[in-house]
Each structure stands twice: as C-alpha cells, then as structure tokens.
Amino acid sequence: MQRTSGAGQDQAPRPGSGAPDTAALEAVFDAAVAADERIEPRDWMPDAYRRTLVRQMAQHAHSEIIGMQPEANWITRAPSLRRKAILMAKVQDEAGHGLYLYSAAETLGTGRDELLDKLHSGRQKYSSIFNYPTLTWADVGAIGWLVDGAAITNQVPLCRCSYGPYARAMIRICKEESFHQRQGYELLLALSRGTEAQHAMAQDAVNRWWWPSLMMFGPPDDESAHSAQSMAWKIKRHSNDELRQRFVDICVPQAESLGLTLPDPELTWNEERGHYDFGPIDWAEFRQVLAGQGPCNDQRITQRRRAHEEGSWVREAAAAHARKHSGVRTEGEAAA
Ligand SMILES: [Fe+2]
Ligand SMILES: [Fe+2]
C-alpha cells in the first residue's frame, strides 16, 4: 500500500477498492514515522496522535499570545525610542507565532474558535511561566534571555517534528526567537555594565526568572505523562530533563559574560558528566502555578477574555469582507 502523502490526494478508499483496514493504515503511518518522513494533513493518522498534536500545538499557540502580556506591560515605559521599537517588534512577533500555530492546528480539523474557547474557559493551558509578573524594566531582558532562550532550546528539535505543518511553523518561529533571545541578552548586558542600581536591577530580574525558566521544560522525565509516546511518534525528540540540562549548560557561561550570577549555590561543573550540576527545582511551586494559583493567572486570563471580546468587531468585519469577495452575501448586505 502506498502513502498518498504530499501528493494532495484524498485518503478515502476508492469505490470498489475496499476500505483499507486500520492495521494496514497504521503500518503505513508507523513506517513513515520510522523513516523520518513527514506526516501531512491528508495522511491517515491515529486519533491519539492527532489529539496529542492538537493539545500540544494549542498550548503552544496559547502561550505565544498570553506571553505578549507581561512584556507589553513595559511598552509604554521603555527607556528609549530604540528599546520601545524593539519591544513592540518582539511582542508583535509573538502574535504572529500564535497565528502560525493556530493555523497549523487548523490543518488537523480543529478551528481557532474552538481552541480559543478552551483557553478562555480554562480547559486548555498555556505555559505557566507567563503567570509571573514583570516588575521592572530588567524583566524584559530576563524574559528575552531566559524565557525565549528556553523556548528555543525546546523548539529547535520541533523543527524536525513528524507532523509537517508544525515542523514548518517552528522553523520560522525559531529564527524569530533567536532575535528575541539576543535582544534580551543585549538589554541585560547594557544594564549589567550600567550604574550600580541598573546592575542590581538586572541581577534581581535574573534571580526571579531563573527557576521558573527551568520549569518551562516540564516535569522530570519519570513524572512526565505524555513524553514516551510523543518521543515514539517523533513529535518530541529529546526528554524534558535532557533539554533542561542543555539549557543550563548554555546559560552558565552566558551569565558569566553578562557579569551576573545564577541564583543556585549548587551550580557546579561536573567533569565526569560533562555537564553542570544544578540544585533541586521547587516542583510544588510549579504545580501550584499550573493549578491556577500563580501570581498573575487571573489577571492574564481576564485580560485575554477582554481582548477577545473587544476584538469581536474586527472578526465580524473580516468575515464580512471575506463574504463580499467570495460573492456570497447575507440578506442584509444584499439589500444595502
Ligand atoms: Fe514566540
Ligand atoms: Fe519570543
């Protein structure tokens, strides 16, 4: 049996050819994944694979748009026109990332309205990192360096994810995340080399964002519910702990170059492992924030719901415009 992927052909059985049985379809799917081929929207895929992707892509898309809030908080107070322009471009990029990811999720048959409804009603989550507040201007730098940095570490392997539309969206997103990470680093460097007060502000922001950034990789491997299956499907390529270690190893020398310290007395180079050892993560805090009791959970979701309601006129106007150009008019429009 041939895969019809990529050729734009339907998967439905042709009359007289007999319906392919699920086991045969599954064998084709498994072989494609094993051969590192991409699964495309029209390919047959197991329901659980589709559900896992929708859940992951939705959570990713939600994180992109909720993540706009803590940084947008500083747009009006950016210390210079240059900083303001950079920050506005970054926040706008995050909206674009949300757009690519909602569109990629739509290829699996799940509409954006449905996903946003699940976000607004709390049935789908977003990354818990965005439930922490941005207290000073230096937080914009710490988010760029650490939060976007952790996102890149997580997302670069997703460029090779088995699902084609997700993998392709990630290639573009990762390029933009690299710019975000660099601007955060550069901002912190300027503060670190500035006055004593600026240096202290940068250090304080790093102290507050370091541990939550490590939590972004998710629970330890032995407690991660979805990891093994996602690895088998090649949605995920590396485990949570592997990625977390990679991130720590990248950040330690960068912190030294910044002239800042990381708030972990147990952080030491382990010659034998060839990696940095680090102290225990407060998983109780992680679970608490995930359960909705973080410092800004209510604020974030309230603002998101309000933005959605206030944007309803834009959606209506866009739909009317699309109808007009498709030649199909409602009665009211035809009479006007
Ligand atoms: Fe992003
Ligand atoms: Fe970003």
- Strands in their spatial order, largest beta sheet: 1-2
| Radius of gyration, taken over Cα atoms and rounded to an integer in Å | 23 Å
The gross shape turns out to be: globular
Main sheet makeup: 2 strands, antiparallel
Report on the structure:
- The structure is a single chain.
- With 336 residues, this protein is mostly helical.
- It has a two-stranded antiparallel sheet.
- It has helices at residues 22-34, 47-66, 68-72, 81-106, 112-120, 138-155, 164-192, 196-215, 227-232, 240-258, 283-293, 297-310, 312-326, 331-335; strands at residues 268-270, 275-277.
Q: What is the topology?
A:
Layout: H1 22-34, H2 47-66, H3 68-72, H4 81-106, H5 112-120, H6 138-155, H7 164-192, H8 196-215, H9 227-232, H10 240-258, E1 268-270, E2 275-277, H11 283-293, H12 297-310, H13 312-326, H14 331-335
Antiparallel strand pairs: 1-2
The structure holds fe (ii) ion (2 copies).
One fe (ii) ion binds at residues 64, 94, 97, 173, 177.
Region (Disordered): 1-21
InterPro entries: Aromatic_CoA_ox/epox, Ferritin-like, Ferritin-like_SF, PaaA, PaaA_PaaC
Protein name: Phenylacetate-CoA oxygenase subunit PaaA
